[in-house]
Amino acid sequence: MGDDSEWKKLPTDQKCEHKVWKARLSGYTEALQQFQRITDEKSPEWGKYQGLIKKFVTDSNAVAQLKGLEAALAYIENAHLASRTAGEVVSGVVCKVFNQPKARAKELGSDICLMYIEIEKAEAVQEELLKGLDNKNPKIALACVEVLRRAISEFGSKVVTLKPVVKVLPKLFESREKAVRDEAKLLAVEVYRWIRDALRPPLQNINSVLLKELEEEWAKLPTSAPRQSRFLRSQQDLRAKFEQQQQNAGDGGDEGDGEESEEAAPAVDAYELLEAVEILSKLPKDFHEKIEAKKWQERKEALEALETLTKNPKLESGEYGDVVKALNKVIGKDSNVMLVTIAAKCVAGLAAGLRKKFSTYAGHLVPTILEKFKEKKAQVVQALQEAIDAVFLSTTLQNVSEDTLAVMDNKNPSVRQQASLFLARSFRHCTPTTLPKSLLKPFCVALLKQVNDSAPEVRDAAFEALGTAMKVVGERAVNPFLADVDKLKIDKIKECSEKVELAGGKKPAGPAKEKAPPKAEPPAEAPAKPSGPPKKAPAAKPSALGKKGKPAAPKGAAPAKAKKTENKDVAEAELSPEVCEERAGAVLPASCMQTLDSANWKERLAAMEEFHKAAEQMDSKEMPCQALVRMLAKKPGWKETNFQVMQLKMQVIATVAQRGTFSRTSALAVLEPVVEKVGDVKCGVKAKEALTGVAEACGLPWTAEQVVSLAFGQKNPKNQAEALNWLCNAIKEFGFAGVNVKAFINNVKTALAATNPAVRTSAISLLSVMFLYVGAPLRMFFEGEKAALLSQIDAEFEKVKCQTPPAPIRGGSKASGGEEADEQEEEAEAGDDVVDLLPRTDISDKITSEMLSKIGDKNWKIRKEGLDEVTAVLSEAKFIKPGVGELPTALKARLTDSNKILVQQTLSILQQMATAMGPAIKQYIKSLGFPIFTVLTDSKNTVRAAGLTTLNGWVEQTGMKLWLEGEELAEEMKKENPFLRQELLGWLVVKLPALRSVPSDLLLCLPHLYSCLEDRNADVRKKAQEALPVFMMHLGYDKMNKAAAKLKPTSKDQVVGLLEKARASVPAKPSAPAKEAPSAAASSTKPASAPPAPVKTAPVSEQVPAETKKSKPASAPKAKAPAKKPSAKAEDDRTGPIFTLLPNGKEQRIKEEKSLKVLKWNFITPREEYVEQLKAQMTLCVAKWLMEDLFHTDFQKHIKAIGSMMEHLDAEVEATVGCLDLILKWFTLRFFDTNTSVLMKALEYLKLLFIALSNQDYHLTEHEASSFIPYLILKVGEPKDVVRKDVRSIISLLRRVYPASRVFPFLMDGTKSKNSKQRAECLEELGCLVGLCGMSVFQQTATKALREIAVHIGDRDTAVRNAALNAVVMAYNVCGEQVYKLIGQLSEKDMSMLEERIKRSAKKPSTAAASKPPEEKVAGSANASMLRKPSSNEAPLKLSEIRSQKAAEQQPPQPSSTVPREFQLDPNFIVDLPETIMPDLLVVESVETAEATPLDVPEFKFRLPSISSSCSAREDSSSINLVISQVASSDAKISVQGLAKIGKVLQEESKWSLFLGHVDEFIVAALMQLRLLASKRLADERTERQQQVDKLYSLVINTLNSLVMVGKLAQEASPGVLKDLVYALLSLILDPQHQDSSKESPLIRSINVVLLALCKNADPTNTLSALLMLLQEACTSTACSSEFSEMVMKCHWRMIRLLPEKIEALYLDKILLDIHNFMKLIPKEILKQKSNAMAQRTVKTLLHTLYRLVGPKIMDHLSLIENRSESEVEAHLRRAMNSASSQTSKDSENISKSKIQPPADPVRISSKPASSSSSSESLNPAHYEERLRALRQLYGLGNNSQSVSVEKSSVPAVSSKPAVSTMDMLQSQLAQLRESREQQGSQNTRPRSPARAAGPPPDLNEFKARLEMIKANLR
């Protein structure tokens, strides 16, 4: 009972994991109830059980397991996280549930599997079930078969992939268990129900008895198609649709549903279910000898053996070239027809078994088979037909077109007949897309010749082929080629077209149209199949609907289409004048007819106006167009002298042409007079409108041809020029479809030769317009012109080179969508048409056998001669015909030539050949194009570059799509050559984005693309990642993800992660060429301006999201939303932050480890308890999905997790810092992994991490460093160079966030390793550290460390010896001969090596003082860097930066003046000074006590250099540096002595000059000392310790005061330094520990004095800049307290009061820029808040005061502000100017006072702002002066002070009120104090601004006067 009471108190999730089964049972029950109550699928409660679900189903107790299965089922059904558990839970079900005896358990297990399928995890479930089939336990195998059958039955073949199921069926039929065999039969029946006969071929080899039983069962199945009964979550809309159909089903509903479902059932190709058979190795060994044998019996044996092998329905790909070559020879040359028949059958078998993989060999076989059709034996012909049909299915019509057309004129009628029949059969497999006009045109021309053939069988075959083509592409596409064919033959073609049945039973638009109207008839026809074709027909050719025969056209077609058809097909007879007058009189007013020929021009004008009005109002169907236009010729007709009448005539022509049925006969009646007037000044515009109307009615191609011929038939050059100008605009408006290019070119050549310059100019303009549509081939026709004219033409072409042709807005806009698409195709093919017109030379006779033998000769010189001859032939011919004989074979062999020069020459020949042959080169893509890829395997860049150039040249001629068809590209990508893969992927990345669509064969490349993602070569992986978005652009994410699912589990996760990443950067597809533009433009009132808009805006709108995603991540959701919709469920799981920032989380972990509550992170190899401990710690602050990946057993999950961390790094820097110790510990575990991929990914992340930490000025804690650095150093000894390189990079980055002197001991430990590589690398790093940072990295152990390093000089490993020698040489370069004492005794051999190395180094023992330390960072702009956190190690960095800058600015003229390193201020020396216990210091209670008990300053253990006037400048500079470095020491004695030395320098005015250039460094050191004192105060609360700290506080403040009081030195302080100094002093004032006493402490009064002196003596520009930066920081940071902001504003007010006396020394441009930046960076909304209102008023007051002092001239000082007109500074100044002009100076002064409102003591900033009074004694300046003087005398300090500048230093406050980071620096110096500090807030860093030369220093000896002034102000 005691135990029960214990576990009953546990929460549910802990009960589920309890060791007591009753507790688990109770937990499962509670979990089930909880799962049923939760309504939100995304509730966080689900996450608690995500890792427990597998335990639910695998419980060892049967009773608990049942309840666990019920709970698991509820979880899977309702939780959005359930999909993540699919693999492990289903695996548990298969292994632990299906073997249970209880039926209920098996039932629940099956339900769980099916539920996973329902939530889109079918692949994972199927994978585990198929694994279960191999289980030795027959119960498990039986249950898996049952679940598979249920899944297929309920979800169907679309959800469950049937191929792997079919593959295991034969194995299941052979099972020893009868129950398994019986269930396998049921499974086979279920599979057959879905795929029907496609299941037969895979099962053809099973037992005949079993097959017979299956046949009987299959016969019992209903013929209706099966329907899905259970749906996925994403198929709920389909489910609702089916339920609605069931509700609405009536008597005939079942039949209709059956039809729909059958159509929806996926068509399964039996070929895909088969296993490929490898036959090449099974060929007889003597096959090739026998096939060449002289005896036909031996040849027959070889062919029969091959035929037997080719009967396998699916063959494995391989090198079949030799086999095909042998078969080709038998078919073409063997005289034995029986052998020809067998060979043809072998070809058919190979083509059918290989399918697309056989396309490479198609080009060799097709011409041979076509020629062999001359055989008359039916058996041979049939075999050849089967062979060529099978070959065609493996390739494309484009590839066989040249060979087929070549035999269409064969002398043998049988060959012509069979070629036509082959085309007819091939057309049945085509679609309008695969049979474009560019192919249809030559085929129709060749077939129309055969229509008139003397042989009837040839004619019938031609009719059948033309009818099939008409059936595929529609009548409209074929009719233009039938213009000259008589009606009987056209009817015959149409009759054949109606009889054609396309492949797959498809019927295009014609039959569908007849069946569409009667909706009641289809049920009567009954069979299910007829419902399929009508739905597929419109996709085949929509345009066929509108032109099915002439009778249907007037009824169904639109009027415009009917008119267009009539114009083209029906020639209108020419009417006599009498008939014209009669018909015109019937529609025109009588008065108009009578006065048309009047002698009075006014009457003719009135008649024409009536004519025009009547034409506009006339019914277009009744308009007699020819009669009307012929009436215009009535006397005086076209010789009309009045231009107004002539203009009206032109308008009438345009109106009649546009509104009526205007035939070409009518057009011919008016074109000549219109063209005569086109050049007329007054009538030319109207004449062009008339021509446009005629062109719209009769088509531009015909009209343009007539207009140009008429224009050049005249002698008037004006008409010629204007006609060409009209043609330019007409082409832009109508497009270029159907234009006779050849006629145009001839006329343009005539115009170019004209003497009139206007004609030549118009001709060149016309050429530029044609260039838009035709492209570069157009220039080929004008290469014979003069050079001057060619240059003009080239200049015009260059102007329009990058432009796209405008969308047509006339003519085509009236056509239907199909017509428009066809016209656009015609325009796209215009360039090809032009190329076809070029005169080409047949060079086949010049490709002699002698030339080919030379190309293949063994001697490379002879081979070169052969290639030179080919080059000469091509150059001479210029343009060649496609036939080049055996040249491609010879050139292909040279692509693999051992001589790279010949390879490059071959590539240039191939490029030249592509240009010369033009688009016809596409027939050689398979045989000669793809072998070019072999060149890309070469290791030489020049060869590969030449190969890519050749490829691009081929693609320009052939287009890209042909290269993507078939498996050739995939085979090339499959080759594991890094150069080939890299170049090929890069080529695809460039080419694919330009395509609007790609062949489906591109899917074949995906497996090889995925393998490239894991290639060993980094460049290949990079290119593969770049290719992912491009492939996804065409294939889609779903297909690529599905392909990735077939990968091995080790590869799958990585690829899926990369797919997700690539999904966000998928480029937009190129937009279609403005298909919708014409209709939009047609409705526009200004058609001429309409076209550019759609062309330019459409693509941009599509591409903007992709570009925005790259440039602005913030806008990603908009761009991503549509793409991510399908997988929103999976995406939601991984949203949100990955790290959670826990308050004091890191500090708590440090305390626990220090107190040994947890294991200390120190091990040789990580044990399981360390991993579990880290996992438990990370659970609290890491997202659960990331935790799964981080601690997964699969290394791919680790890679994925690191990728996620890299993605979130920039966005979650703060949270990353909060979990940094855990992150670094996790990476130390990865250092012990053996997988290189994980290690490289981890190192990549670490580099990014340390860069981010450095940018945030973060400093590693001792805890973090000791947990990580030792294990990182272990990896520096890795054998792989890439790993060591990355580790070295990380160590160099590590120095930015952790002092070099702290890294040094870890490296020293690394030198003790047994791994020689590790020793060598560590010694190299040690040498680098010494060279960069000097001897300070040794800390107090220089002798010991150098001796340990020197020991390695005698190491057996050469690398270790060299590294040790280099390290000692580095030390020698720093400290000189002293190094020999430090390294101790060495053997004679080692010492000689060292001396020799030092001698060879030839470097004197001096260091470059100005060299930048490794920790140095580049400072950003002032305002930008303000937003960053302060860092404790920033101060030393700034010291080094400042010293470097000063050294650069004040370089001494002589090289000998370089400061020795031992005297330089080294940041690491400052940071790492050893901390000792500060000796007890005397507490000075009062001046009297101080005088009575002088302070005994402890002696420094080293002799400090004296700073005297006798020293040289170099020595003094070195001494000053050393003394300043002592000020920042953590040793109180050293610091006190340093301050004393500084005080002596400041006390003597003669020595002030020594301090010039070192002011910045001193203030940094002082601020660092203040930081250390703050840390000590927190760490030790003992009273005596606190008093010691207070004493040193006072000493530092007094020394700062002495410095600030020296105006000459105070002027050197830069804004950043002043800002940090003011910040530190104000923070000290706010420190509660300094506010304990009721009266103001002496320290705070001293600080007030320093602040006052700063305002008075420091450079006013720098002071104001510093204060403005502080004010900005106070306004933007939520951590800053209101007291801090108020004090900053008080400092501002004090400076404003001092402005009248400082205005002359003020750099106004800089101050106004700072004010501008303040107003720009802080939004008005923040400034208007109540807390920031005073800050806004303060800045405005500063602006108004500056204006009052300077006047309107201040507007000239805005030069540094960019876009000053947009700046608020200018606006405020202008308002001040306006107010000043309207008010008196007295009013302005009053307003100014009211705005400033300074307190009684603006500078003496009280630590208690609320208090209104203070004792007069505490505020007495004289009293304070006496105390100050006493303190100076006690410490031996002078009476002078100064201020200094610093870059990024910050002194954190000890108080939590100002919320500043106080302990960052302490973390790197005092480990024992670091763990005890409390969490501090964040504080922005303060940037550095360059110091500016100040004016003359003020009087520095008026201290008393100033104190009196302070006193007066206080009163």
Description:
The chain is mostly helical and 1915 residues long. It contains 102 helices and no strands. It is globular, with a radius of gyration of 46 Å. It starts with a helix and ends with a helix.
Brief write-up:
63% of the residues lie in helices and 0% in strands. The protein is built from 102 helices and no strands.
Unreliably modeled segments: 250-265, 509-570, 813-832, 1073-1132, 1403-1515, 1784-1820, 1831-1902
Determine Rg (CA atoms, Å).
46 Å
Main sheet? none
Q: What shape does the CA trace take?
A: globular
From the N-terminal CA to the C-terminal CA, the straight-line distance is: 81 Å
Strand % is: under 5%
Helical content stands at 55-70%
Describe the secondary structure blueprint for this structure.
Layout: H1 2-8, H2 12-15, H3 21-37, H4 45-48, H5 53-57, H6 62-78, H7 86-96, H8 103-118, H9 122-132, H10 138-155, H11 163-173, H12 178-195, H13 208-220, H14 236-248, H15 253-264, H16 270-273, H17 287-291, H18 296-310, H19 321-333, H20 337-354, H21 359-372, H22 378-394, H23 397-407, H24 413-427, H25 437-451, H26 456-473, H27 475-478, H28 487-499, H29 509-515, H30 522-525, H31 532-540, H32 552-556, H33 559-569, H34 577-587, H35 590-595, H36 601-617, H37 625-631, H38 643-659, H39 664-677, H40 684-698, H41 700-712, H42 717-734, H43 741-752, H44 757-774, H45 787-799, H46 817-828, H47 830-837, H48 849-855, H49 860-877, H50 887-894, H51 900-917, H52 925-929, H53 941-958, H54 961-964, H55 968-974, H56 978-991, H57 1006-1013, H58 1018-1035, H59 1037-1044, H60 1049-1063, H61 1077-1082, H62 1092-1111, H63 1116-1124, H64 1128-1132, H65 1145-1154, H66 1168-1179, H67 1184-1190, H68 1195-1209, H69 1213-1218, H70 1220-1230, H71 1236-1255, H72 1262-1274, H73 1281-1297, H74 1300-1310, H75 1316-1333, H76 1342-1351, H77 1358-1375, H78 1378-1383, H79 1388-1401, H80 1422-1425, ...
Helix pairs in contact: 3-6, 6-8, 7-8, 7-9, 8-9, 8-10, 9-10, 10-12, 11-12, 18-20, 19-20, 19-21, 20-22, 21-22, 21-23, 22-24, 23-24, 23-25, 24-26, 25-26, 26-28, 29-31, 34-37, 36-38, 37-39, 38-40, 39-40, 39-41, 40-41, 40-42, 41-42, 41-43, 42-44, 43-44, 44-45, 48-49, 49-51, 51-53, 56-58, 57-58, ...
